[in-house]
Specification:
The protein is α+β, with helices and mostly antiparallel strands. The chain contains 13 helices and 13 strands. The protein has two domains: 2-73 and 91-245 and 313-324, no CATH class; 248-308, Alpha-Beta Plaits (2-Layer Sandwich).
């Protein structure tokens, strides 16, 4: 296969993606083709998925057929899936979330994913990523970072700006993306990536570490987005559990809170409300992103670990635990 790819002058990054896929147990040719389509045409793929692309309505049946082909409509897991809106019934296509999902990460945890100095292999993070598929954190060439114009924002008629906020981390993903999207992607340094994370955090946007079965079943990107543009948040609101909690929830110090409501408009998950001049947190809604904590000038908000929400994706802690095991 790789000889055929070279014969037809296929890009080196595509060959590298193919070779890496061959090393992944159970990763089929259909998985690779799915990953290739997703990585090669993400704006079409995601635009169709969130219903914003002009062809979305016309080809709805075709999209469902493709999802079925790649196993997206199958029931995958019997574990309770994380949800933002506890009162909403889950949709029938849970399998889509099983193969393509994000883990909410507060800013310090997102920084850790960018500051890795050596290859990392943390497979099967079941307690951290509560899905049956796509839950490996394997970083090759972690200093290879590309920023890509956000496909979700790009699909919207009036997107939040800037567009260049999606971070692709490690190989073979970074080279593949920059090779195929040179007009919308560029190489950046770790420092530039950290600056993007900080700027998006300042805007009140949420960081997600994204995993996908077709992308070798592992972590490949950090999404920095908002509820009005993000396709994953949109799916979550519609009952498809595509996001896992950070493992934290926000808590309010009632002695410090003055009910100023400064934090209220920044909550991307509608977990905050005001009652008798004190901010209240809906724990079922809260995903522990930490955005509200940064916006509270009174320091009345903080994050606390909540075991029922899962284990945080904190790379340094996970590495230490692996070394101690």
């Amino acid at each position: 296969m790789s000889r055929l790819l070279r014969f037809f002058s296929i890009k080196a990054s595509t060959i590298a993606f193919w070779r890496e896929g061959r090393r992944v147990p159970g990763y089929s040719i259909f998985d690779w083709l799915h990953g290739y389509v997703y990585g090669r045409w993400p704006y079409l793929y995601i635009g169709m998925g969130i219903g914003e692309h002009p062809l979305a309505k016309r080809t709805a049946r075709l999209v469902q057929s493709v999802r079925s082909l790649f196993g997206a409509s199958q029931e995958i897991s019997t574990k309770k899936a994380p949800t933002v809106v506890a009162t909403q019934p889950a949709r029938e296509d849970k399998g889509f979330a099983e193969g393509y999902h994000g883990k909410v990460v507060p800013l310090p945890a997102a920084r850790q994913l960018i500051q890795v100095n050596e290859p990392i292999r943390l497979p099967d993070l079941e307690q951290v990523i509560p899905y049956q598929r796509a839950r490996d954190l394997i970083l090759k060439n972690p200093d290879h970072i590309v920023v890509l114009d956000c496909p979700c924002r790009s699909a919207r008629q009036n997107p939040c700006l800037p567009l260049d906020v999606c971070l692709i981390v490690g190989e073979p993903f970074a080279s593949f993306v920059v090779d195929h999207h040179s007009e919308r992607a560029r190489w950046i340094s770790r420092q530039e990536a950290l600056e993007i994370l900080q700027a998006e955090d300042d805007r009140g946007h949420v960081h997600h570490a994204f995993f996908k079965d077709a992308m070798l079943g592992r972590f490949y990107a950090i999404c920095n987005c908002c509820s009005c543009c993000c396709g994953a948040m949109q799916s979550q609101r519609n009952g498809t559990p595509m996001l896992a909690s950070s493992g934290y929830i926000a808590q309010v110090d009632e002695d410090l809170c003055i009910g100023c409501e400064t934090c209220l408009p920044y909550c991307q998950f509608s977990a905050l409300s005001i009652s008798e001049y004190t901010m209240m947190v809906d724990e079922a809604q809260c995903m522990g992103c930490g955005v509200c904590v940064e916006k509270c000038e009174q320091e009345a908000l903080s994050l606390r670990l909540e075991p029922a929400k899962g284990i945080p994706l904190e790379l340094n802690t996970l590495i230490e635990e692996m070394a101690a095991a």
